[in-house]
């Protein structure tokens, strides 16, 4: 299989919302693939029809012509997925370490070219931990390495902002609504007037892919863009992997439609992260970091 040419991206474009700098942020292609496909089905009444299903596909990542990993993904924003994956695996320190990311769906490959290579890449990728992520997520090395050094911003989150966030997710157009079988993640910023703004929304076959894509998006922004308080939302459960990646992105508050695992809970407490789960409509449970949540309980009617 021939690799896409990482030195001269063939379909280079500036993705919406990305910050251009004179210092060299990586050149990214703008490769896209259909997110869904139509398939024939038969329902419980024997009626034939067609439905949309997510178009899962494999993407093999090569770093400086060395095969690293194959990701299973929808392919919505593959360049940001690859960048975020490298960041969350701690293989690079910032987007400035990367010269270009070239994705070619004809060969299902992503070619990453770095400026100076990745130090001790063979040693650092020798140990692989299979996580609980959908689609068999994995991380290289020790999951817990370095988490005690993480310092999260002193951010507060009101109950009204939580409800506004959940409502924004409810109204968001999504592949899940048309085809199901995917996870969604979003990054919100907290506004001075008490509102919330959705900065980035990503869906993929696994929540670990979606959060990696958001990590890639963050890495391509100017610091001023994300100077406000940040909140991460996911439809999936809050595992240790999700909590650690959120903390690595400098996000001190995570909200999930689902629950939290024991290890996710322990990590959240350890790094001082506010973990909120079972967040639907006006219901939620705060599992950790309650000091970051400003409660505004509604009065009980009757009784």
UniProtKB/TrEMBL annotation:
Put simply, this protein is called Sulfur carrier protein FdhD
Q: Which domain of life is it from?
A: Bacteria
Q: Which locations, inside or outside the cell, does it occupy?
A: Cytoplasm
Sequence segments annotated as region (Disordered): 1-29
- Residue ranges annotated as transmembrane are none
Q: Name one Pfam family in it.
A: FdhD-NarQ
Q: Which residues form a coiled coil?
A: none
The record's active-site residues are 134
Q: Which UniProt keywords apply?
A: Cytoplasm, Molybdenum cofactor biosynthesis
Task: List, as start-end ranges, the regions of compositional bias called Polar residues.
Answer: 1-13
Q: Give the matching Gene3D superfamilies.
A: 3.10.20.10, Cytidine Deaminase, domain 2
Similarity comment: family membership? Belongs to the FdhD family.
Looking up HAMAP family in the UniProt record yields: FdhD
The answer to whether UniProt assigns keyword Acetylation to this entry is no
Its principal location? cytoplasm
